[in-house]
Write a structure and sequence with these properties.
Length: 556
C-alpha cells in the first residue's frame, strides 16, 4: 500500500464493499477515482451523459439486484445536477453511495467551488466530507454502513487534490458489513395477535394488503394462506403488484391505480390488515380507498401519521412472516369466520372486467393507451423486467397481470418525471439478458433522451415503449378540467423512432396494436435496443387523474 494514491485506495475499498458496477460522468473532481474503478478486475463501468442519470441508473441497478447503487460525479456543477436524484432516493429510501469530487482543498480559488454539504442535506442525503487522509477508510465504511443500515443515499465528498496524495499506512480496509448489526426478525406481541385474529374472524368484508415488507421477509405464501383461512380478499401496493395475481380473489393494486372492481369492494371493506406497507397517501388514495374499514398496520416501523393522514387504527410492530403465521394459527384454532365477500361471481368479475371501464372518443390513427397495454400484456413474456416511468402514462401499464413483483421497478417518491430511461438502463445493466422493457411517456423520455447514446455505446439491450400523446398528459387534463388554455402543454408527437435511429438504435412508430407481435418477434431476433413510438390519444384520462381532478387537484 506504500505510495498508493488515495483515489486508487478508495476504489479498492469500494470493491471490498461488493461493488461490481458503477455509473459515472467524469470531471476533474472524480476522473482519477473513476479511472481506478474502471481498471479494477470485474468492475463494470457505465459512462453516462448527465449526472442525474448516473444516480438514477444506480437506483435501477439497486432495484434489480438489491445491492447498493454506486454513482460518481465531479464537484460544483456536476454535483448540483443531482439534487433531484438525491431527493428521489432519500424519499424512496434507496441506498446509494455517490462518490463526488470536491474543489481542491489547498486552492486559494477554484471556479467550480460550492458548499456541497448543505445542498445534500436539503435533499435528505447523508454527506461525508472526506478531508483527512488518515481517516479515508473510515469515511468509505461509514458511507456504506449508513446506506445499508439507514436505507438512504450517501455522498462521499473528496477534494480533488487530496485524492492524488499517497495514502498513509492505515492498515487494511474493514468493510461495513463487519459492523452492521446482525438482528433477528421482530416477533409479534401475542396479545395483539389475539386481538387481530378476533377482528379478522368477525369481519364480513376483510382485505389483506401486502407491501414491500412482505416481499423482503419472504412472507407472500403465509400472507396468502392467512387470507384463504379468513375468507379475505388480497390486495397489494403498487410496488409489489402481481404478487397474488394467480389468486382468483386478488383485487390487485390498492390506491390511486386500483382497478374498478378493487375500488368497489374497497368501499365495502370493514377490516384491512396491512402487512409490510407504510400505507402512504397513494396506497390509501388519500383515505378514499377503504373509507369504512378499520385498518391494522403490521410493519417493522409502524407509523401513526404519514403523508398528513392517520395511518391505521391498530399498530403491530413485527416481521410480516412471523405475524401472518401467528394470526393464521389463531384463526385455525377458532374455526370459521364471518367473511362472506368471496363468491364465484366476484372471481369472474375480477378476472374478466376491465381495469377501467370509462369510455373516451379516440381519434382515427391514434390508440387508446389501455388497449395498447392490453395487447402488450399479451405479447411481452411474463419474465421481462418492467420499468415504469412517471407522469400520466404511468397508470396504464400498471394494469398488466401475471408478472412477479421482483421484476417491477418504479420510483414514485418526489413525483419527478424524467427518471424512467435511467432506471431502465440500470435494470438492463444488472440483468444483462435483454429482457427489460421501459414504459414511459414522451415528455418524460425527452428530458433525458441523450442517454440513448450510452445505451448504444455500451451495447445494452432494452425495449422502450413510449405512450406518446404529444403533450404533458397530467397538465393538459388538469388545465382542461379548469377550463384553462392547454396549448402550452401540447408539443406534438415527436418522431421518437427517428431519434432512436439517429443514436444507432432501432425505432418504429406504432399506430395499430396488430404491429406489436411482429415487432416483438423482430426485437427478440436481434441484439440492439429498440424504441416503439406508440401514438396514443390525449383524450383518454387515467382514473387516478380523473379522481384527482374531481376532488380538486392541489387539494391532497
Amino acid at each position: 500500500m506504500n505510495n498508493m494514491p488515495i483515489y486508487e485506495a478508495l476504489a479498492q475499498a469500494f470493491a471490498a464493499e461488493g461493488v461490481d458496477t458503477h455509473f459515472t460522468l467524469m470531471g476533474d473532481g472524480n476522473m482519477h477515482w473513476a479511472t481506478a474503478m474502471k481498471n479494477l478486475d470485474g468492475m463494470a463501468t457505465f459512462s453516462v451523459r448527465h449526472e442525474h442519470c448516473a444516480c438514477a441508473m444506480a437506483m435501477g441497478y439497486h432495484s434489480a439486484t438489491g445491492k447498493i447503487g454506486v454513482a460518481s460525479v465531479t464537484c460544483g456543477p456536476g454535483f448540483t445536477q443531482i439534487m433531484t436524484a438525491l431527493s428521489v432516493a432519500s424519499r424512496g429510501r434507496i441506498p446509494l453511495v455517490v462518490f463526488a469530487g470536491e474543489a481542491p482543498i489547498n486552492a486559494k480559488w477554484y471556479n467550480q467551488a460550492i458548499d456541497q454539504p448543505p445542498l445534500a442535506a436539503a435533499t435528505g442525503a447523508h454527506y461525508i466530507s472526506a478531508h483527512s487522509p488518515q481517516r479515508m477508510y473510515q469515511y468509505v465504511r461509514e458511507a456504506f454502513y449508513v446506506a445499508r443500515h439507514e436505507r438512504k443515499p450517501v455522498v462521499l465528498g473528496v477534494p480533488y487534490d487530496l485524492q492524488k496524495q499517497p495514502l498513509p499506512n492505515i492498515g487494511e480496509y474493514q468493510p461495513s458489513f463487519t459492523v452492521l448489526p446482525n438482528t433477528e426478525p421482530t416477533p409479534p406481541n401475542p396479545q395483539q395477535i389475539e386481538q387481530l385474529a378476533e377482528k379478522l374472524a368477525a369481519a364480513k368484508c376483510p382485505i389483506v394488503l401486502a407491501g414491500r415488507g412482505v416481499m423482503r421477509s419472504g412472507a407472500a405464501l403465509e400472507v396468502e394462506a392467512l387470507a384463504e383461512q379468513a375468507g379475505a380478499l388480497l390486495a397489494t401496493t403498487l410496488l409489489v403488484r402481481g404478487m397474488f395475481d394467480h389468486n382468483p380473489f386478488s383485487i390487485g393494486i390498492a390506491g390511486g391505480f386500483a382497478r374498478d372492481i378493487a375500488r368497489e369492494v374497497g368501499e365495502q371493506a370493514d377490516l384491512v390488515i396491512a402487512f409490510g406497507t407504510s400505507l402512504n397517501y397513494y396506497t390509501v388514495d388519500g383515505g378514499n380507498m377503504f373509507p369504512k374499514a378499520e385498518v391494522a398496520q403490521i410493519d417493522i416501523e409502524p407509523l401513526g401519521l404519514h403523508n398528513g393522514l392517520k395511518s391505521a387504527d391498530l399498530y403491530l410492530r413485527a416481521d410480516a412472516k412471523f405475524a401472518a403465521v401467528a394470526i393464521l394459527e389463531k384463526l385455525r384454532k377458532r374455526g370459521g369466520t364471518k367473511a362472506g365477500i368471496r363468491s364465484n361471481e366476484l372471481a369472474r368479475r375480477i378476472k374478466e372486467e376491465p381495469a377501467d371501464s370509462a369510455q373516451f372518443p379516440v381519434e382515427p390513427g391514434l390508440l387508446d393507451p389501455r388497449r395498447a397495454i392490453d395487447e402488450l400484456d399479451r405479447v411481452l413474456p411474463k419474465d421481462y423486467d418492467c420499468v415504469s416511468g412517471a407522469g400520466h402514462q404511468a397508470y396504464f401499464h400498471s394494469t398488466m397481470r401475471g408478472r412477479k413483483p421482483e421484476t417491477y421497478h418504479a420510483v414514485r417518491e418526489f413525483g419527478a418525471i424524467g427518471n424512467g430511461i435511467s432506471l431502465a438502463i440500470g435494470v438492463a445493466a444488472a440483468r444483462k439478458n435483454g429482457k427489460a422493457v421501459l414504459f414511459e411517456g414522451d415528455g418524460s423520455l425527452l428530458m433525458h433522451i441523450q442517454e440513448l447514446e450510452m445505451v448504444q455505446r455500451h451495447g445494452l439491450r432494452l425495449l422502450i415503449c413510449v405512450l406518446n400523446d404529444g403533450a404533458y398528459g397530467s397538465e393538459i387534463h388538469k388545465l382542461r378540467a379548469d377550463g384553462v388554455d392547454d396549448t402550452g402543454a401540447i408539443f406534438g408527437r415527436t418522431d421518437l423512432a427517428s431519434i432512436a435511429k439517429g443514436f444507432g438504435l432501432r425505432g418504429t412508430t406504432v399506430t395499430d396494436v396488430s404491429q406489436f407481435k411482429s415487432l416483438f418477434d423482430a426485437y427478440q431476433a436481434q441484439g440492439t435496443a429498440e424504441l416503439w413510438n406508440i401514438h396514443v390519444s390525449d383524450r383518454v384520462v387515467s382514473p387516478s387523474t380523473r379522481r384527482t381532478v374531481g376532488r380538486g387537484h392541489g387539494k391532497m
